[in-house]
Amino acid sequence: MWLLLASEGFPGIWDNISDRNALDLNIIFQIAANVIRILLWISGVAAVAIFIVAGIMYMTSSGDPARTARAKSTITNAVIGLILVLSAYSIITLISGKIG
């Protein structure tokens, strides 16, 4: 949408695109992909840490149904989060491979 607004507000703005500008745009995409990869890595580490904490919660629940249910729910959510992080990482890797 901003691209459409920029082209309407500044006629001829895209007329002088050279290989250097395309290279600069490619570098911007690569930097964005790297930042996203780092954030996804941090998210994956956090999901594994939550999974470990939930496992400890489950082991120390002492058979209390409420604490056991809470630990199981946390484990389920950690697994779902880890699947989402791995899926996002795969998508970002695929897209950055096509760009670069």
Distance between the first and last residues' Cα: 24 Å
> What is the SS-derived class?
mainly alpha
**For the report, how would you describe the main beta sheet?**
none
Rg on CA atoms, Å: 22 Å
Average pLDDT confidence is 77
Shape: rod-shaped
Q: What string gives the helices and strands in order?
A: HHH
Query: β content, as a range?
Result: under 5%
The number of distinct β-strands equals: 0
If helices are DSSP runs of H or I spanning 4 or more residues, what is the number of helices?
3
Summarize the amount of helix as a percent range. Answer: over 70%
Question: What's the oligomerization state?
Answer: single chain
Low-confidence stretches: 1-7
Number of domains: 1
Could you explain how this protein is built, in words?
The protein is mostly helical. The protein has one domain. Helix 2 packs antiparallel against helix 3. The protein starts with a helix and ends with a helix. 6% of the residues are buried. The N terminus is likely disordered.
